[in-house]
What we know:
Chain A is mainly beta. Chain A is built from 2 helices and 8 strands; from the N terminus they run ββαββαββββ.
Amino acid sequence: xxxxxxxxxxxxxxxxxxxxxGEGELLIEEGKVSPWQKLKGKLSSENKKIxxxxxxxxxxxxxxxxxxxxxxxxxxxxxxxPKPKSYNYKHVMGKDVNQDKEDWFTVAEAQYDTYxxxxxxxxxxxxxxxxxxx
Amino acid sequence: MATFTWTAQGTDGATTNTTIGATDVLRFSxxxxxxxxxxxxxxxxxxxxxxxxxxxxxxxxxxxxxxxxSGQIDINGGGTQTLNGTNLTTAKCTLKINFADAASxxxxxxxxxxxxxxxxxxxxxxxxxxxxxxxxxxxTQAHGSGSALSLTDQSTATSHNFYIGCSATPTAVxxxxxxxxxIELTYS
Lengths: 134, 188
């Protein structure tokens, strides 16, 4: 959809399905619920769970959070690292009263017991990204 | 794309509104546009001003939501009232900030605050700023992102309005320009 956000999510489910925002059943449709809300509805109604979450930028780069079923890349630190309890995806926007352009980020979040690990990508410049724990 | 639109609402029940453009400011004044606010007193009028210093309100000015005490407000010079959703209706709030997206989204963790114009965690310089969301029963001294006014989460829709009352007092003499208002939210 013209003018929409550039950074999209890609999820894998415990059913083996892989879904990408803007494609198939997660199309971005004007006036309809957002793809993330569609996905939440699907997970609830079909009793499914996200096992991995990544963000894709317009140049097809992917920024992945650690997957629940991670075996690849097959390195000790990745395969033995604590697994997230759940995942979240959101956009964060801010604007000053007299600012020309909104500050706008897309965020993927891995939720652990006592903290969250987030990947922030700048929608106004998707080549810029940050990783933070909150 | 998702956008914010800041609108200053007119005293005629928000019939006459003024969109606050990218080079405009919200000016808190004394009795009329451009007159001074006494140090440690809150504003008696609220206006929109462009970058050239020109008053943008028409004959209808912007709602003045004056802080009186934590649970009290003076709306457009009408005298002290209890701050609540009955007295401060949506149409009587200083600001309507609209957030719109092409898709139907939820909003959460929305916050509104004043800062020094440089670092969002800082308080505005030489200004005490108070804010309330329509329906609140007390003001929030919204100084920096760490002590912002929290705005109500909203369920799925393509358009979300936030109605906010604003009041400010200088704590030092002179025009106070290290003072900006900001809104932030999360949506999905």
